[in-house]
Design goal:
29% of the residues lie in helices and 30% in strands. It is of the alpha/beta class and 232 residues long. The longest helix has 14 residues. It is elongated. Bound molecules: S-adenosylmethionine.
Length: 232
Amino acid sequence: MNNFYAPPSQINNGFAELLDQEAIHASKVMRAREGDTLTIVDGVGGCYEGIIRRITKKSVQVEIKDEEHRSRSKPELVLGMGIIKKRDRLEFAVEKAIELGAAQICLFRSEHTIKENVRMDRLESLAISAMKQSLQSHLCNVEVYHSLDMMLDTVSVDNMLVAHEKVDETNGDIDYKSVRNSERTLLLVGPEGGFSETEISNLTDKGGELVSLGPNRLRAETAAIAFMSQFL
Ligand code: SAM
């Protein structure tokens, strides 16, 4: 089943309109025709079944026949990740974290970050395709912050776990109860060079709980996926 994406601004008076890549995907790639049925998600929990009524070069108009609204599952998981150098590895981690249910992904520059910028356009379209592919109806917000501190000052969470390879395994267990009882938990992973000692002490001062992801040193992208997978 292929889902298509139309933001709420494109859903009015019982009709949804697919535009740009979504319209091309429906009409050219999937060769959908007038009268065909399809499923549309709006990125804020709405899921619509409809019938194609009009196809033009730039748009596909769908008459909505049925709709369902889902709220985000709780607790919401926010992945905070240091920007890593290799773009394909970063994009892989973002895509997998979304499939694994990340409600928000906050990329940040930190003391050991090697790379400064990311291709937000690519990450935004990747977030849409990962939402559709994993049959979700909530779009994951992917954001970039100039620093770890700015990210911490901006993102609203009520619980924070920090994956740290230097924490002793025996007392690095994850406090699942703190996650289950939270509204939004931040899962933090450092860049290739990890968190600095200063960053770690700032994070613990701010209530961050240091956790181990096992005895092996994981690449940052592996750690992000392993961390998210703990809460499936
Ligand atoms: N700084 C380390 C070094 O250079 O040896 C490696 C950092 S690791 C490549 C990147 C990030 O993945 C770390 O900051 C941490 O968040 C996470 N990580 C990797 N292995 C981990 C483990 N076994 N337990 C907890 N976190 C881990």
